[in-house]
Design goal:
- Helix content is about 40%, strand content about 15%.
- It has about 270 residues and is of the alpha/beta class.
- The longest helix is centred in the middle third of the chain and has 18 residues, at about 155-170.
- The structure holds ligand 7PJ.
């Protein structure tokens, strides 16, 4: 018997971000040493994170992939150091997911390719009983921000997530273990991101818990007046997270855990 997603991650839950990469979106390199990443992950759980998302491959705009060996070299010591704490693995590689879930206790696979990146991924998730996040991305990280285009961005993202959910279920992953994510910043302009957040109820209407990651993303910095911004502030992140929660998000993927836990506790009470 597995616990349904909604029970394991009640609304709102916070996912803390631990990037073990030299070049993530917004916290470039701060956790590249395993001991720093482990300390950051532990602190996030102390501060109220429901889960800590450990990733060893950057998906920031313009980034190239890394090999399985390099990704494992980055994440394995961190997963070992966080053993016993609730951890997810941010990876598109089946072998990295397998090691994380089957050998090192990760409970959720966060695959930004939504099972399109590695044909072995669905089997790893199905067999392990892990939770799964399916995220929308237009294009691939290296080129996704060059000229993203949609007719109706919300309708297209919803249709994509519905199709990936059906694919995952057909591959043997129980629907009750899956959450969906519109993929803020993944092949989207500022206006696309805003439209997705304004109409997040249409993503929630697909019937699965929704995860939103907008923490420190460039859209926020651009809204604050810098057209070249590559990051956003904590205060801007918290505002976006609270409104995403109000519009139906269940899990907020964030860098500043304490601030989000406090703000979301108040938002939930109101
Ligand atoms: C997201 C992610 C997101 C999910 C990143 C960063 C960029 N995974 N991985 N959703 N963003 N599920 O950490 O700022 O929005 S990488």
């Amino acid at each position: 018997m597995t616990v349904p997603f909604e029970q394991r991650f009640p609304r709102p839950s916070v996912m803390g971000v631990v990037n073990v990469t030299p070049d993530s979106f917004s916290d470039a390199g701060v956790h590249f040493r395993p001991e720093d990443a482990i300390a950051a992950g532990r602190r996030m759980v102390d501060e109220g994170a429901a889960i800590v998302d450990v990733g060893g491959e950057s998906t920031r705009p313009g980034s190239e992939g890394v090999s399985v060996e390099e990704e494992l070299r980055r994440v394995v010591p961190v997963l070992e150091g966080l053993r016993g704490l609730p951890v997810s693995i941010d990876t598109a590689k089946a072998e990295v997911a397998r090691v994380a879930v089957a050998e090192l206790g990760a409970v959720l696979v966060n695959d930004v390719t939504a099972l399109r990146g590695d044909s072995g991924m669905s089997e790893v998730v199905a067999e392990s009983g892990a939770f799964l996040c399916l995220m929308h991305m237009q294009g691939a990280p290296r080129t996704m921000q060059l000229d993203p285009r949609y007719g109706d961005v919300v309708a297209e993202v919803a249709a994509f997530l519905e199709e990936r959910l059906a694919f995952a279920v057909a591959a043997g992953i129980p629907e009750e273990r899956i959450c969906l994510d519109p993929g803020i910043g993944f092949g989207k302009t500022v206006e696309h991101n805003l439209e997705l957040l304004r109409r997040l109820d249409e993503i929630a209407a697909l019937g699965r818990p929704v995860l939103v990651g907008i923490s420190r993303k460039s859209t926020l910095g651009r809204l604050l007046g810098d057209p070249q911004a590559r990051t956003g502030t904590t205060a801007a992140s918290v505002a976006a997270a609270v409104l995403a929660f109000e519009r139906g998000a269940s899990i907020l993927r964030v860098h500043d855990v304490r601030e989000h836990v406090e703000a979301l506790a108040v938002a939930a009470a109101l």
